[in-house]
Design a protein that fits this description.
By secondary structure, the chain is of the alpha/beta class. The chain contains 17 helices and 14 strands.
Length: about 425
Amino acid sequence: MNHTKKRITLAGAAPDTKNLGVSALNHATISNLNKYIENATFTTLDNGLSIRNTTIQSASSSISIQLCGSKHGRRYYQHENLTNIRTCCKLGGLFNPIAKHIIKSDCIIDISGGDSFTDLYGEWRFNAITLPKLIAIENKIPLILLPQTYGPYNSNTCKKKASEIVKRAHSAWARDHGSFEELKQLLGDDFDPSKHFEGVDVAFILESYAPKNIPQNLNSFLKGQHPTIGINISGLIYNNIENSKKQYSFKADYDQVIKKLITQLLSHSNANICLIPHVLVDDSHYESDIAASKKTIIDLNLSPADEKRVIIVEKNYNQCEIKWIISQMDWFCGTRMHSTIAALSTGVPTTAIAYSLKTLRVFKTCQQGNQVIDPRELNTNDTVEHLWNCWTTSEKTKASLQINLPKVLNKANDQFLKISKTINKL
């Protein structure tokens, strides 16, 4: 039995972003690796200051971890600055306690926020995502790229940099078949089936548990006789319609799609509707799902009767609690991809309003590609019509999901077993 403690540093899954998808990656990764690695100590790179102790809470236990501040920016004098950390790591951690802590890692596992190993969000974000990977490579710390999306890359410079990183990584996983093909392309002749694998998004096996306090209006929906529909509205898109329409090349008007869908559900079904945010930043932030949900309610100007049938899940639940709430829905329609994974992984018939290829790729892992509706290809009315059809055929979708989901969950568990074996051998 190996009694040596494995020092594992997790990058690309900061638990303090208020994005429950990223928090899900953090929780699922650490809690599942902890099952298989007997003497693991975990450090997570986050956006805070210095090195701190905390715990990851599960339904039945807690895991002690350390948080390490690490930020991309121009304040190079700060210990938390990734360029500062990178420089000091080359000096053996001299002058920087965070650098000194990181270079003691037995491995750096990196998940890039699930979908950020790309220049789709700009070169600044791409550089921020790649810095921890470069720190691992330059200091000969084994780099394990956890299941994630690779690409797209609009810049040849970024694509070349990504290629160099995956070639020098100890091992790499993709979270769907399309991403695996992209990974193989980046690797070229360096592709090695013993090091490079096709997996699934780790959030498929994120645990879920009921919140201790459920508001009365939500509780009445969940225990009522009528169906309950969950809708996730992306603040990233809704809060700046013109900009997002241009950025993602939408044919449909996203805000109109959301409002028309809710109006049709209220008029032609007896379902109640829960608007479920998945990015819980302050209302003033341009990405706030809560702000987008509130604006939707205001814009709809609902009648008193309909107003009682639509609620916003406003409380700051954690990723496991939100997953449980989503699991209680009879149908779920989401734009944030990890909100839809919370639904898919719990067997809820799920439809996505997609704005990038990543969503279709992940849905295909469950044989649910026909549940991805793309407003980049459809106009507003056609998008709403397709969403309505998904709702009316949701029982058929549920049956299909029940057949295909167990394979995905088994694959997710198996990949953690393999990753753990890799780490244990280091």
